[in-house]
Write a structure and sequence with these properties.
Radius of gyration: 26 Å
Strand order of the largest sheet: 1-5-4-3-2
Number of helices: 8
Distance between the termini: 68 Å
Helix content: 40-55%
Order of helices and strands: HEEHEHEEEEHHHHH
Strand content: 5-15%
């Protein structure tokens, strides 16, 4: 099995891209990769074309450098540098974020505010890939959440799945987070990990590469929220158990006893016990 650095943004982005591509349909598999992300097709102009050329040149330079380094470890990155001005415009691929090919779903939200609220719900922001043809016209070469040909195919939001490597990264991230000093002592640590993995499976592909290139921070925030949610639920359940025990003149948990004996801590909010005393 290939060894993967689970905390590496580069590997995470690569697996996210492969996972999203499994939900897409392209006229050729080589067009699944893109050189620049734009919000609208009208944003493809001289400036964005130049930026896409720079991105593609940087990517090709890195690939060439890694290949040469395997043969000669002393190879320098500057020796593999590719001039972006030599890249042709019709070799570029643009990812356009659009809901154009997603069917409408009236009534999904009571007060729709965005285009996404009026469309069928999908597991990640939809997009289309465009490139210039030989005549200089932009043509669509790929669609997300699509099955079959671009003209005779159909919308399908369940056509793909997350890669096994990405799923392992999610699990490893949760396991590593569970070893932190502020959460590893809880007896329900396994429940927190399970909730975090479930949360990542639901929102893992919603990461938008057009807004950030740091999926690790996005995933860590989701895992943190999942852990805190379970802690709050367990604490609320523990308070209910302690209230019932005190109502029946039984010994509550050590946490409640410590709170009641320490005047600096917040006093017990035992409504049942108060009613009984009255």
């Amino acid at each position: 099995m290939k060894k993967v650095n689970y905390l590496n943004n580069k590997d995470l982005l690569d697996q996210i891209h492969k996972s999203k591509s499994s939900y897409c349909s392209f006229i050729d598999a080589k067009y699944s990769d893109y050189d620049l992300i734009v919000k609208d097709i009208d944003k493809i102009n001289i400036r964005t074309v130049a930026q896409a050329k720079r991105n593609k040149a940087k990517k090709l330079t890195q690939i060439d450098y890694e290949q040469r380094k395997k043969v000669n470890p002393k190879t320098k990155l500057s020796e593999c540098e590719i001039d972006y001005r030599k890249i042709q415009k019709d070799d570029l691929v643009f990812r356009v974020m659009t809901y154009e090919h997603v069917p409408d779903e009236p009534g999904r939200k009571r007060n729709p505010r965005t285009v996404a609220d009026k469309k069928e719900k999908v597991n990640f922001p939809p997009f289309q890939h465009f490139k210039y043809d030989r005549k200089g016209n932009l043509v669509c070469i790929g669609k997300s959440h699509w099955e079959g040909g671009l003209h005779n195919g159909k919308f399908n939001k369940e056509a793909g799945q997350a890669t096994n490597e990405l799923a392992r990264m999610w699990m490893k991230l949760c396991e590593r987070y569970a070893t932190r000093g502020n959460v590893r002592g809880y007896t329900y640590n396994d429940e927190m990990q399970g909730q975090a993995i479930l949360q990542l499976a639901q929102i893992g592909l919603q990461f938008d590469e057009s807004k950030s290139n740091n999926p690790f921070a996005y995933y860590t925030a989701a895992v943190t929220n999942s852990f805190v949610r379970i802690i709050n639920i367990e604490k609320r359940n523990q308070n209910i158990r302690d209230d019932i025990l005190e109502m029946n003149d039984m010994m509550p948990s050590m946490t409640r006893q410590t709170q009641d004996s320490n005047p600096k801590t917040k006093p017990s909010q035992n409504k049942f016990a108060k009613k009984k005393k009255k």
